[in-house]
């Protein structure tokens, strides 16, 4: 299984590009698509799910160009859009049966599948309750169940953890990890921790372009020797922030412990520390903004 995105662009009205010459090669596993708001993640997800056509480039699923032949991917595609909505007065079973019917899926097969999926997403006990009583996390799990109705080989999930509380977020993450098996899962997010433990591959996008695609370990390795920590007096904090790329800070009674990303030692007191994926993400986004080669 392979999804190849070659030099894909999406030009909106007024010469504005949502995507520009973006290329990625995606194999079985979970691809975490990371980028700040407005980077072009949803535009890419909509192109991959054949809702929108690119204005340039090619997307191939197992060798077939889906921009020319969208049906080549539709039957094996599961998609959870960012703005997934439910019919509030239906219960989970009715809602999933309704979606299966409009997609033309076989009722007999689907009935059994819905029962299995409701167990999988841990909603079986509440399957007969109207959806308007469901929390954000429960609705997202219904969203995942609908995306899995046809047992897709390509599962696309766009910013699924927005609005979820920390516990729901962890549960959702674990669920996606269980689902990866023999399929391609593409998970878009601007929150690094959403994909930290689960992604087999990470693509960072910014301003419509692909900044890098690599395994999490490669991203971390590239940031080794660039992350520094030291304690500064509280009143110098604003100055440090203006001059350096600050990844995080911890306030204490002795001052502020700053974590900075820099190619060379930023201060005589600073010490190198082990990078996290969050540091690596910041490093690549920042280098991309400055136009540096990364
Ligand atoms: N239909 C449209 N017409 C014009 N511009 C658009 C359209 N859809 C998206 N854009 C613009 O394209 C850029 C990329 O948007 P997109 O929604 O793909 O980003 P994103 O990474 O998903 O961000 P977010 O997480 O905020 O949704 C943004 O600047 C957005 O304003």
From TrEMBL:
Looking up SUPFAM superfamilies in the UniProt record yields:
P-loop containing nucleoside triphosphate hydrolases
State the SMART domains in the record. AAA
Keywords assigned by UniProt?
A: ATP-binding, Nucleotide-binding, Transport
Which Gene Ontology terms cover its molecular function? ATP binding
Q: List, for all copies, the residue spans of the domain called ABC transporter.
A: 3-232
Similarity annotation = Belongs to the ABC transporter superfamily.
Tell me what this protein is called.
ATP-binding cassette domain-containing protein
């Amino acid at each position: 299984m392979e999804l190849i995105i070659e030099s894909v662009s999406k030009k909106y009205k007024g010469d504005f590009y949502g995507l520009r010459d973006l290329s990625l090669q995606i194999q079985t596993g979970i691809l975490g698509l990371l980028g700040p708001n407005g980077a072009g993640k949803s535009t890419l997800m909509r192109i991959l799910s054949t809702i929108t056509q690119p204005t340039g480039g090619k997307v191939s699923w197992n060798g077939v160009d889906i921009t020319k032949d969208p049906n080549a991917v539709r039957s094996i595609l599961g998609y959870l859009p960012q703005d997934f909505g439910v019919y509030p007065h239906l219960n989970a079973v009715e809602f999933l049966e309704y979606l299966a019917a409009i997609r033309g899926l076989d009722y007999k097969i689907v009935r059994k599948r819905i029962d299995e999926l409701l167990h999988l997403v841990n909603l079986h006990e509440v399957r007969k309750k109207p959806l308007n009583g469901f929390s954000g996390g429960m609705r997202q799990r219904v969203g995942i169940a609908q995306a899995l109705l046809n047992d897709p080989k390509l599962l696309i999930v766009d910013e699924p953890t927005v609005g979820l509380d920390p516990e729901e977020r962890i549960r959702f993450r674990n669920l996606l990890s269980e689902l990866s098996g023999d399929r391609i899962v593409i998970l878009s997010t601007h929150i690094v921790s959403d994909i930290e433990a689960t992604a087999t591959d990470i693509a960072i996008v910014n301003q419509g372009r692909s900044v890098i695609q690599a395994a999490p370990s490669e991203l971390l390795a590239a940031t080794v020797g660039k992350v520094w920590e030291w304690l500064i007096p509280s009143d110098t904090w604003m100055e440090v922030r203006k001059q350096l790329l600050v990844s995080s800070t911890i306030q204490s009674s002795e001052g502020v412990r700053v974590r900075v990303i820099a190619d060379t030692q930023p201060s005589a007191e600073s010490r190198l520390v082990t990078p996290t994926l969050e540091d690596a993400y910041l490093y690549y986004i920042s280098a991309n903004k400055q136009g540096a080669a990364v």
